[in-house]
Structure to design on (316 residues):
């Protein structure tokens, strides 16, 4: 079989390079055209959506393998984006997630129309992602800790923060304060949602206001920054955690590098706006690979909120 395919390949080369077919000396099989058509149809037979090319190392990774590895490349450890539901599933104890405000949905208060209206965009994204907006919030258990957890989803309009994202997170933070719970917010966002103009920008102050009450109650807040966390989200709740951690290679910043370069007229250092660069410069406290996240969060919670474990609550 292997030698057969070799012969076909040789034939293909000869057919291309020599304009006149050479009949002398060669066997009768050489007169036949190589079966290129079968080779083509074989390519088409590979079903789509089985393999994903890693943008960092270029390896084709089997999708099932990628899913089992929490969307981390098995060759170079590149962290692919992960959906909010999968993230929650990977962190939370089974059947302990009580979702808050699952039906809260944005309205087109500015009657925004660009290439498409905001209303139709919302409908499209709700249909394609199965989400109502760019964040999922709820109270759950991680190891022995009852925590308030908010997870953003980049697949919904770039994880942009509109009034619903701000409101859901504010309600989550207020619930954590009321119930005396530690808070974890996992961010990924392109920033404030332009379709809601000033109403988006107001969410920055609102979420931070709620967080200051949470801090006053001496409750811990862990902020996890994932690729990418930028603009209005980075400039508000994502950057004010008691502990700020990030995933490897995540892009983190306020404005994009091109804008900063144009404004400051200065050359930017290598690796600017990556998690690793920011760890070196003291903006974040740790870089945690996705597969270690649950264990590390548990460790941090044991330290920051030892009295809040389920076991000790039952004893008291
Ligand atoms: Zn890779």
């Amino acid at each position: 079989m292997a030698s057969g395919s070799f012969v076909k390949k040789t034939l293909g080369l000869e057919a291309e390079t020599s304009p006149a077919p050479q009949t002398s000396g060669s066997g009768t099989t050489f007169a036949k055209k190589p079966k290129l058509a079968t080779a083509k149809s074989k390519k088409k037979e590979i079903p789509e959506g089985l393999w994903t090319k890693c943008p960092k190392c270029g390896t084709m990774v089997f999708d099932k393998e990628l899913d089992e590895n929490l969307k981390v490349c098995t060759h170079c450890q590149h962290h692919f984006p992960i959906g909010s539901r999968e993230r929650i599933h990977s962190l939370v104890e089974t059947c302990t997630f009580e979702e808050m405000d699952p039906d809260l949905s944005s309205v087109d208060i500015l009657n925004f129309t660009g290439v498409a209206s905001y209303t139709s965009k919302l409908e499209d994204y709700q249909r394609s992602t199965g989400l109502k907006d760019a964040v999922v919030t709820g109270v759950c258990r991680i190891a022995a800790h009852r925590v308030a957890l908010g997870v953003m989803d980049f697949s919904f309009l770039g994880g942009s923060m509109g009034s619903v994202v701000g409101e859901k997170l504010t309600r989550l933070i207020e619930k954590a304060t009321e119930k005396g719970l530690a808070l974890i917010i996992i961010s990924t966002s392109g920033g404030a949602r332009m379709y809601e103009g000033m109403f988006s920008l107001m969410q920055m102050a609102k979420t931070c206001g709620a967080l200051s009450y949470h801090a006053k109650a001496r409750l811990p807040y862990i902020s996890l920054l994932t690729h990418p966390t930028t603009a209005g989200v980075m400039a508000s709740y994502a950057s004010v955690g008691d502990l700020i951690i990030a995933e490897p290679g995540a892009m983190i910043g306020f404005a994009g590098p091109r804008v900063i370069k144009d404004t400051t007229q200065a050359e930017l250092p290598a690796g600017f706006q990556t998690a690793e660069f920011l760890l070196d410069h003291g903006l974040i406290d740790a870089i945690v690979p996705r597969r270690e996240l649950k264990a590390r969060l548990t460790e941090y919670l044991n330290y920051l909120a030892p009295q809040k474990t389920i076991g000790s609550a039952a004893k008291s």
In short: The mean pLDDT is 85. The longest helix spans residues 197-216. Residues 100 and 138 are 5 Å apart (CA to CA).
